[in-house]
Amino acid sequence: MASFSIIHFNDVYNIEPCPMEPIGGAARLSWYIKSCDDPVVLFSGDVLSPSLMSIFLKGEQMIPVLNGVGVKCAVFGNHDFDFGVDHLEDLLADTLFPWLLSN
Description:
Elements: E1 5-9, H1 25-35, E2 39-43, H2 52-57, H3 63-68, E3 71-76, H4 85-92, E4 99-102
Parallel strand pairs: 1-2, 2-3, 3-4
C-alpha cells in the first residue's frame, strides 16, 4: 500500500535555530520533512511578518525557506499583508507553489 505524509505548518516568523525546545529553525523543519515518506507540505499563513528580521527584510527572508522545504500550496494569513499588497505580489512571484484563498 502506498503511503504519504501530510505536513502542515503556519505562523512561522523566525528561521534561526534556537537551543531551546520547541524552536529548531528552518534547518530542523527541513530535516523533519525530508525524513517523512512522500511528504505533502501545506502552509496556512503568516510567514512574512512579524519578526525582527522582517522589519528589515519585509518577509523576503522567508521565501527561500518556503521553497526549500517543498511547500506544495499555501494560503494567506493576515500578517502576510503587513507590507502591502504590491510587496506581497512581488514576493509571490518568487514562490514555487500556488497560493489559495486566505485563512
